[in-house]
Every structure is written in structure tokens, then in C-alpha cells.
């Protein structure tokens, strides 16, 4: 994905590539402020009666300066949606009465706006499915920054020890020490409405700029980070923390709150598969110090845009790892960023990732949510940062198809019969174009000993009980596995020793004591 914004020929602005169809206004009438869609369905937001200037583009963010006096609008593209922030630069700008209620019109094609969990917003399809979700809005000031402009004058810089890398741009989320407030949404008469907290917007201790993030930042993903100080970061981008964000060993992270990170997965790509193994991978970009610390992977109840601290109920331990990565040359030896992999340790009976993902594929779990957390949430040196791109890597095989030829088994019922019709290189029966029982054509001799049948060749013919002329029948005990390379007969016409092998794909086929097609 590349969410770098570019100007399009139709005058709009959009990302170079994204999972969703996303377009921002290129300037002018704000009736086409933005459009978000997928699979032929879309939702459109407009700001009635407003004109917006042509935006300044900086990476994934489009900034529309002075949409109100002293107020900028920032729209940021993500791989799965967008974020929207109003930046109130000064106390004078905060007095504008238009900021007391922000009202955006909403319309859709195949989608309808509806209130979401915890005061958020959802775009629902005709079947009642939430195609896009957004959390409740939020606003925050700049009190936690080293610099800022307070309502009562300049603010002195804050003296800190060496600081761990910042958790993100102040335009996208509140930082350490920022005053913040949650802004629930109202959906009414084709509009979404949010009312900023005026005590924070215009307070005597407010430090500007103030950022107002209306609850209209929609996305298709299911991930969040929760903090014990009440902050939450639904559909976060980039890297955020896990563990106690405090200070230790001369390094400063935050005021001592605890972070947990959640990722939720849908089963669509695993339906009908038999899971052999599973690995959860998370990319660690920073550790508080060079010594390794334990990080846990836990299965939890599912998340939503309204999930708050302490987060959903914890259900089962999936694994843990004793690691440190991301400090680079600050450590000896050097510790670069690294993918941290959680995979079942056979020596630890409480690690259940593979069996849990198997139940997930079997439909026993509707959605699978994983939580990253520090094992010791009281130890600031165990704090780590992970990227938003965690993945679940699954090794699986397709489940066997339904038998296509079932009948009475001759004999005592303890043997199964695998029937093989060999195809020549031209895709014909080796017995010739007249079908089984005739002399093989020249193409049959092009199949050499040990070469095997290519995937897709016919393994179950229409004729039974006839040996010779290139067709073989072999008796197998019921339940015996046919591994790759199993010989299933001889070409009698060309003499003994000219044997044919069947290269099986996926799990070994099993002779079930009946006649069946092996796919």
C-alpha cells in the first residue's frame, strides 16, 4: 500500500494505492469533502455552505488552511480509511461560534450512517453489516509538548531526561500530558453532529493548538491500542507502545500509564481449511532498554470502536517471548527492528495458538482477537513499541472433497480400490482415442518411469476391473495413506517396471475403503 496523496485528473485528491476507494476534495465547494467506498458501496461527507481552498499535500495528509479563521482542516489517508482533524491554532480562533457544533452532511450508495459503539460512527450496508467503523471523536490540546502557546501566554519548555521516540504526530492523537476529551457523535436527519468540549477549547490553561477529531474517521480494520489513562487509538497507524510507559534508567516515556494492543481477524480466508500450524507476527521497533523482557500474546473477547480500558476479557494464553529489538546501535551488539514470532512451544502446554486458529477455521470462533501486553506491567523497562502491521501466518491444507464414486466394495470390506487411468502427454487415454481396452498410442510411451502424473491428470477413470493396456488397479487396506510418490500400478503393455506414481497435493490422500476420486 502507498497512501501518499496525489492530485487526480478529476480534480480530487487521493492515495496512490489503498485497500479502499478514497477521495478528498481538491478545493472548492465542500459538498464533496470526501468519499470512502468499497465493493461498489460508498459514503460521502460534505460541509454544507463551506468553501475549502486547494489543499497542501504532505505525504498522506491534505491540509486545507483557514477553513475558519485560524482553523485548518487536515484529512489523512490510511490504507483502510481516513482520519479528519480540525486544528485550532490560537485562543482567538477558538472563540468562533462555528466551532460550538460541527455538522457534516452524510449520504451513501448502499451504505447508511448509524451510531456506533461508545459514541462512534458506522457505515452500514442493506444487510445490517458494518462496512466501516469509527470511534467516538476526541479533542486535545498541546499541554504535553515541550513548546506551545497557552491562553495566558507562552509556555516554558518541559525538562526531561532522554526521551524514548514519540508515539506519533500530535495531529493524529493526544500525547503525554495533553488535556483531552471524548466527543460522542449524533446521527440525525442525514447529518453527523459533534459538539466540542468548550471548557477545553477555550479554557484558561488550554495550550494551543487544539486538535478536534470528529468521530467521522472511518476504516475497515479492527485494531486498537488502549491506555490506562483513558486514551484509545482505534485503527492506529505506525508504531505504538505496549507495557508501562514511565521513566527508568534515565529514559522517559510517559506519566506511568499502561498500554495494551489488540488485533482482530476475520475467518474468511480460512473457511474450509484444516490448520496445521499458526504463527502470530508483530514488528518490534523499539525497546526501553537493551535487556530482553517478556511480552505476552493473549486471546481476548472481540473489540469494537467503543472498547475502553482495561479492554475485553482475557480468554487464553497463546504464547510469550523474551525479546528486545529496535534500539539499534544504542546496544552492543546492535539491536535492529525485528519481527517477533509467537508459535506454540511443545514444551509449554499453555501455548494454544495452533489449536485456537484451527477452531477459528472450523467456525467455532466467529472472530479472533489477539492482545499484546507486557508480562510485567509494573516494569517501565519492559515497555516496547510495535507496528500496526501484525499478521497471522497459517499453514493449512484443503479438506478432502466429497467422494464422487461410491459403491459396494468386493471381498471382505477391508480393502479399498484406487482406480487409475493414465493420460498421455496429449491429454488422451494411453489406450488410444477409442477409449479403454485398445492398444495405447505413441503418446503413452512419453510418460517415463518415476516421472509421475502432473497435477490435474485424471486419477479415477470410468472403467473398472480391467488390468493391462496401461490401466492398473491396486488393492489397498482400508485407511492406508497414499503418500507422495506412491505407485498405483504398472503399464502392462510396455512391460513390468514401467510404473506410475501419483504426486499428491496438500495432505496425503487416504484410502477410505471405498472407491473415490483423489483430487
From TrEMBL:
Taxonomic superkingdom: Bacteria
InterPro entries, A to Z: PTX3
Composition bias, Basic and acidic residues: 439-450
Chain segments carrying region Disordered: 142-177, 425-497
Protein name listed in UniProt: Serine/threonine protein kinase
Amino acid at each position: 500500500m502507498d497512501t501518499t496523496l496525489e492530485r487526480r485528473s478529476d480534480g480530487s485528491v487521493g492515495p496512490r494505492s489503498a485497500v479502499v476507494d478514497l477521495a478528498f476534495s481538491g478545493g472548492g465547494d465542500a459538498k464533496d469533502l470526501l468519499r470512502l467506498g468499497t465493493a461498489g458501496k460508498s459514503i460521502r461527507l460534505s460541509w454544507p455552505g463551506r468553501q475549502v481552498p486547494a489543499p497542501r499535500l504532505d505525504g498522506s495528509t491534505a491540509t486545507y488552511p483557514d477553513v475558519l479563521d485560524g482553523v485548518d482542516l487536515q484529512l489523512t489517508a490510511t490504507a483502510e480509511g481516513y482520519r479528519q482533524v480540525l486544528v485550532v491554532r490560537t485562543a482567538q480562533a477558538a472563540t468562533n461560534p462555528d466551532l460550538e457544533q460541527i455538522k457534516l452532511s452524510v449520504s451513501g450508495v448502499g451504505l447508511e450512517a448509524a451510531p456506533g459503539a461508545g459514541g462512534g460512527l458506522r457505515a452500514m450496508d442493506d444487510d445490517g453489516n458494518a462496512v466501516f467503523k469509527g470511534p467516538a471523536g476526541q479533542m486535545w490540546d498541546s499541554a504535553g509538548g515541550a513548546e506551545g502557546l497557552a491562553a495566558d501566554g507562552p509556555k516554558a519548555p518541559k525538562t526531561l531526561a532522554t526521551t524514548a521516540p514519540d508515539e506519533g504526530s500530535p495531529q493524529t492523537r493526544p500525547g503525554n500530558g495533553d488535556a483531552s476529551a471524548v466527543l460522542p457523535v449524533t446521527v440525525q436527519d442525514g447529518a453527523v453532529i459533534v459538539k466540542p468540549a468548550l471548557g477545553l477549547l477555550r479554557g484558561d490553561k488550554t495550550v494551543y493548538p487544539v486538535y478536534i477529531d470528529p468521530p467521522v474517521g472511518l476504516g475497515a480494520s479492527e485494531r486498537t491500542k488502549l491506555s490506562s489513562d483513558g486514551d484509545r487509538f482505534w485503527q492506529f497507524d505506525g508504531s505504538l507502545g505496549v507495557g508501562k510507559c514511565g521513566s527508568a534508567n534515565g529514559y522517559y516515556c510517559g506519566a506511568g500509564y499502561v498500554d495494551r494492543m489488540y488485533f482482530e481477524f476475520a475467518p474468511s480466508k480460512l473457511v474450509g481449511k484444516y490448520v496445521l500450524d499458526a504463527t502470530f507476527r508483530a514488528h518490534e521497533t523499539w525497546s526501553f532498554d537493551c535487556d530482553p523482557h517478556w511480552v505476552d500474546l493473549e486471546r481476548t473477547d472481540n473489540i469494537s470502536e467503543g472498547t475502553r480500558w482495561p479492554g475485553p476479557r482475557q480468554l487464553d494464553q497463546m504464547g510469550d517471548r523474551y525479546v528486545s529489538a529496535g534500539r539499534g546501535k544504542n546496544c552492543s551488539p546492535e539491536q535492529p527492528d525485528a519481527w517477533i514470532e509467537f508459535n506454540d512451544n511443545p514444551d509449554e502446554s499453555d501455548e494454544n495458538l495452533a489449536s485456537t486458529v484451527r477452531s477459528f477455521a472450523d467456525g467455532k470462533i466467529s472472530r479472533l482477537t489477539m492482545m499484546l501486553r507486557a508480562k510485567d506491567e509494573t516494569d517501565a523497562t519492559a515497555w516496547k513499541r510495535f507496528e500496526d502491521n501484525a499478521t497471522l501466518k497459517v499453514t493449512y491444507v484443503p479438506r478432502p472433497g466429497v467422494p464422487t464414486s461410491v459403491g459396494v466394495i468386493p471381498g471382505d470390506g477391508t480393502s479399498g480400490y484406487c482406480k487409475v487411468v493414465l493420460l498421455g502427454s496429449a491429454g488422451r487415454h494411453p489406450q488410444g482415442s477409442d477409449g479403454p481396452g485398445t492398444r495405447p498410442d505413441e503418446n503413452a510411451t512419453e510418460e517415463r518411469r518415476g516421472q509421475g502424473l502432473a497435477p490435474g491428470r485424471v486419477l479415477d477413470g470410468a472403467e473398472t476391473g480391467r488390468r493391462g493396456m496401461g490401466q492398473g488397479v491396486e488393492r489397498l487396506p482400508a485407511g492406508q495413506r497414499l503418500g507422495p510418490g506412491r505407485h498405483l500400478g504398472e503399464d502392462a503393455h510396455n512391460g513390468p517396471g514401467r510404473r506410475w506414481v501419483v504426486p499428491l497435493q496438500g495432505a496425503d490422500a487416504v484410502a477410505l475403503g471405498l472407491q473415490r476420486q483423489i483430487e
